[in-house]
């Protein structure tokens, strides 16, 4: 094997004939909704090698099918509550169910994923000297008493409610990130993600945008949970991925809010979906779940200033893009 014994020949061969990845990137939770879009974006750069670790609780191989078998891509069935030994330069730590239906299904497991999972990812980052980004959430602000929410707001979270496994789990995950940073010098980044939507969301995962689009396409009434005046701000997934990559490659640890400041009541959202997708359906009011935050809107001044980022896709532009994907998956062709 001539090039085994001749490193200069090997270097020259590689330079001329192969792509040498100069960044190996781990994405925990990369088979999920946001993670799979992040994979697509990172794979566009030929210098990146992407490894996904996912236990498929809410994600699926289907989301990554175009990359399976690609020489710069690797998919590992792995639960982040177990240790992971691997060599990487960057870790995007997304693993955690994001839909209330799924994170409430096994709340103890949700806490383990947030706490032990984040601890393991930080232990890995420490051992290999990788930079790590946590996808935290606007839920750390709980039912906010300040509006819109800046990063400096400490939140109003119920520590013993049915949403606490997620909200408090992410708050501990943020604390762990900062303690590893201060104690061990780990390079950290924290994104506080606000409600995100787009193609590949689980069709029946209970989140409001996916519910409404699926209901509109099936000709069912849109289920607005009472009172309907509660607000959310919806960010299209391509804007989210752009913000996450900027945060990872920038110099600020965060936390930084990444979200779209366009704020809508759930009644307004239902009316918009009805108008755009199926004007003949009804909107009906149904019971809500406990501890539902009454209003939520990101203050994105910091993202604008530090990352030069702001969302580009408006709700009325993003909903039709998601509709196309749902039509294909639900087999509801356009008339
Ligand atoms: P998702 O449920 O589609 O993706 C989560 C992925 O993590 C899935 O592929 C799932 O199988 C995997 N996973 C869950 N537990 C795991 C475990 N123990 N080990 C390994 N993999 C595990 O959710 P998403 O919307 O893509 O959210 C991604 C991240 O962004 C999550 O951390 C979520 O908390 C955060 N976030 C999302 C939103 C949003 O609106 N989508 C808002 C705020 C924060
Ligand atoms: N860990 C991991 N992969 C690694 C290194 C560590 O999953 O490459 C896990 C390890 O099993 C531990 C956690 O990360 O549970 C925290 O590791 P750290 O070294 O910070 O703490 P310690 O092992 O000393 O408790
Ligand atoms: N919601 C709704 N109808 C649904 C599902 C949700 O009106 O079919 C409401 C829910 O009460 C909440 C908002 O939509 O006020 C956002 O809920 P989602 O579960 O999408 O996200 P989160 O509560 O985590 O922000």
From TrEMBL:
<keyword id="KW-0963">Cytoplasm</keyword>
<dbReference type="GO" id="GO:0042732">
    <property type="term" value="P:D-xylose metabolic process"/>
</dbReference>
<dbReference type="Pfam" id="PF16363">
    <property type="entry name" value="GDP_Man_Dehyd"/>
</dbReference>
<dbReference type="GO" id="GO:0005737">
    <property type="term" value="C:cytoplasm"/>
</dbReference>
<comment type="function">
    <text>Catalyzes the NAD-dependent decarboxylation of UDP-glucuronic acid to UDP-xylose. Necessary for the biosynthesis of the core tetrasaccharide in glycosaminoglycan biosynthesis.</text>
</comment>
<feature type="domain" description="NAD(P)-binding">
    <location>
        <begin position="26"/>
        <end position="320"/>
    </location>
</feature>
<comment type="pathway">
    <text>Nucleotide-sugar biosynthesis; UDP-alpha-D-xylose biosynthesis; UDP-alpha-D-xylose from UDP-alpha-D-glucuronate: step 1/1.</text>
</comment>
<keyword id="KW-0520">NAD</keyword>
<dbReference type="InterPro" id="IPR044516">
    <property type="entry name" value="UXS-like"/>
</dbReference>
<dbReference type="GO" id="GO:0070403">
    <property type="term" value="F:NAD+ binding"/>
</dbReference>
<protein>
    <recommendedName>
        <fullName>UDP-glucuronate decarboxylase</fullName>
        <ecNumber>4.1.1.35</ecNumber>
    </recommendedName>
</protein>
<keyword id="KW-0456">Lyase</keyword>
<dbReference type="InterPro" id="IPR036291">
    <property type="entry name" value="NAD(P)-bd_dom_sf"/>
</dbReference>
<dbReference type="GO" id="GO:0033320">
    <property type="term" value="P:UDP-D-xylose biosynthetic process"/>
</dbReference>
<keyword id="KW-0210">Decarboxylase</keyword>
<dbReference type="InterPro" id="IPR016040">
    <property type="entry name" value="NAD(P)-bd_dom"/>
</dbReference>
<dbReference type="GO" id="GO:0048040">
    <property type="term" value="F:UDP-glucuronate decarboxylase activity"/>
</dbReference>
<comment type="similarity">
    <text>Belongs to the NAD(P)-dependent epimerase/dehydratase family. UDP-glucuronic acid decarboxylase subfamily.</text>
</comment>
